[in-house]
């Protein structure tokens, strides 16, 4: 058994962090292409293994999940932002919170929410006119925030308050862009963007305080509303939830609950604009299934090609482009002994773009998801929502929401991208386009 996986030799102190920071997408693609499923590199002082073999991803996330946890470095600024919410918590805390959250995300509950999602989508396009230009990313962020506030917090905020949330996303995102200086420095060393980040967190805390005040006295008894906030406020009233835990869960819900869906929608509109033949087939399917009706969950279940389009968008532009784990005990991965201190990078981007697992991976090809072409593909060649016990709890909501919004908008409109291609991408916690996603509205 080889002791050390192959990989690039980095610089003193910085390791490969400066190369990674310049373009993390190209970096992980290059490592996967050169070294295959396992490669070693230094991320500043951190000994890091890239794990890009689907079977090993499954081993870490599913088969042996109890042997892995999220690494401590994710407790820094991310911990300041999300605290001990579902995304970051571990052990008993995570298990208890996940159990509390499950009813709010059950398909039985979400199946009754399709009309409310469509209401928000229709509000989004109410002011659109033929020939007008919209910022698709900002529009998708607004509508997905409206949905998560409604379905998971039981509130509807004024547009200006939703805009306040949107305006904080830029300084928050900037804090998590790869920075080789941050990789090399201790967390306590001040950095130029710390003040803007702290101010954004404070502003969002103020928004949450407003939401909590709006919901005071409205959660009812155990047969009351089943949005996540109501569930947690009732648990707090029983003495089973602290104010701090309530805040952490709602901050996680506010941010993680909308961002990935907004990005999936943004990239879907972009890809449809760039591939009119795919767009035409999608419109034909929506016209045949939905017709002049409002989209419902029953329609969504019949929209097969829409499923393929959404999956292909997430394959090409996975909103979460990498996740991290660290073993809690010595483990064996791909023939290598891995120490507990090792950081494991599981990059969706590299796996989704690998020629080892995908034919012509840079081509937007929704038909690759047809059953006859999907047969034999490893389930973890595609993992936009993670996997195993800690898979994204909002997966079903995100997919239902994305499909209902696409079906609603595409019933009446086409969007034509007006920017330059290829897209320049910003690697934060999620993959955002750097340029404004200006799109011209065309009535169908």
List the helices and strands and how they pair.
Elements (H helix, E strand, L loop, with lengths): L16 H6 L1 H12 L2 E6 L2 E6 L2 H10 L4 E2 L7 H6 L8 H11 L5 H4 L3 H12 L7 E3 H18 L5 H17 L4 H5 L9 H22 L12 H10 L5 H32 L1 H14 L7 H6 L1 H13 L6 E5 L3 E3 L2 E3 L4 E4 L1 H5 L18 H4 L20 H16 L2 E5 L7 E3 L3 E3 L4 E6 L1
Parallel strand pairs: 2-8
Antiparallel strand pairs: 1-2, 3-5, 4-12, 5-8, 6-7, 9-12, 10-11
Helix pairs in contact: 7-8, 7-19, 8-13, 9-11, 13-16, 13-19, 14-16
Description:
With 444 residues, this protein is of the alpha+beta class. The termini are far apart. The model has no long low-confidence stretch (mean pLDDT 93).
List keywords for this structure.
three-stranded antiparallel β-sheet, globular, five-stranded mixed β-sheet, 50% helix, single chain, 12 strands, 444 residues, 11% strand, alpha+beta
Class per helix and strand makeup? alpha+beta
Query: Largest sheet, described in full?
Result: 5 strands, mixed
Radius of gyration: 22 Å
Count of helical stretches: 19
What ranges have pLDDT less than 50 throughout 5 or more consecutive residues?
Answer: none
What's the overall average pLDDT, rounded? 93
Helix % is 40-55%
Tell me the span between the first and last alpha carbons: 61 Å
Molecular shape = globular
Please, what is the oligomeric state? single chain
Strand order of the biggest β-sheet: 1-2-8-5-3
Q: What is the tally of beta strands?
A: 12
> What share of residues are in beta strands?
5-15%
């Amino acid at each position: 058994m080889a002791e050390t996986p192959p990989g690039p030799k980095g610089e003193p102190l910085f390791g490969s962090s400066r190369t990674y920071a310049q373009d993390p997408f190209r970096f992980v693609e290059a490592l996967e292409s050169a070294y295959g499923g396992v490669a070693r590199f230094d991320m500043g002082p951190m000994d890091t293994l890239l794990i890009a073999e689907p079977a090993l991803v499954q081993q870490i996330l599913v088969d042996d999940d109890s042997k892995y946890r999220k690494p401590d470095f994710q407790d820094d600024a991310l911990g300041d932002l999300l605290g001990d919410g579902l995304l970051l918590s571990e052990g008993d805390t995570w298990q208890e919170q996940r159990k509390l959250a499950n009813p709010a995300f059950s398909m039985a509950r979400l199946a009754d929410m399709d009309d409310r999602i469509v209401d928000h989508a229709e509000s989004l396009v109410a002011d659109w006119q033929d020939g007008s230009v919209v910022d698709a990313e900002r529009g998708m962020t607004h509508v997905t925030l409206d949905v998560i506030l409604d379905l998971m917090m039981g509130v509807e905020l004024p547009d200006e308050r939703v805009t306040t949330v949107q305006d904080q996303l830029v300084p928050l995102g900037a804090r998590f862009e790869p920075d080789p200086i941050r990789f090399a420095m201790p967390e306590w060393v001040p950095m130029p963007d710390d003040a803007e980040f702290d101010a954004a967190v404070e502003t969002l805390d103020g928004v949450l305080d407003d939401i909590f005040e709006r919901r005071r006295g409205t959660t009812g008894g155990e047969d009351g509303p089943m949005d996540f906030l109501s569930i947690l406020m009732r648990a707090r009233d029983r003495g089973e939830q602290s104010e701090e835990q309530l805040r952490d869960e709602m901050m996680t819900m506010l941010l993680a609950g909308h961002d990935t869906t907004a990005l999936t929608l943004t990239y879907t509109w972009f890809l449809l604009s760039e591939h009119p033949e795919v767009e035409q087939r999608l419109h034909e399917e929506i016209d045949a299934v939905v017709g002049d009706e409002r989209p419902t969950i029953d329609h969504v279940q019949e929209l097969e090609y829409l499923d393929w389009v959404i999956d292909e968008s997430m394959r090409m532009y996975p909103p979460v482009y990498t996740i991290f784990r660290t073993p809690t005990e010595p483990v064996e991965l791909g023939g290598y002994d891995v120490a507990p201190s090792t950081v494991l990078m599981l990059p969706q981007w590299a796996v989704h773009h690998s020629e080892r697992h995908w034919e012509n991976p840079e081509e937007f090809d929704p038909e690759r998801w047809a059953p006859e072409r999907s047969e034999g593909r490893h389930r973890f060649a595609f993992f936009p929502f993670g996997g195993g016990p800690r898979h994204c709890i909002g997966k079903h909501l995100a997919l239902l929401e994305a499909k209902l919004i696409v079906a609603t908008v595409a019933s009446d409109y086409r969007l034509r991208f007006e920017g330059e291609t290829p897209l320049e991408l910003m690697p934060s916690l999620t993959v955002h386009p750097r340029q404004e996603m200006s799109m011209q509205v065309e009535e169908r």
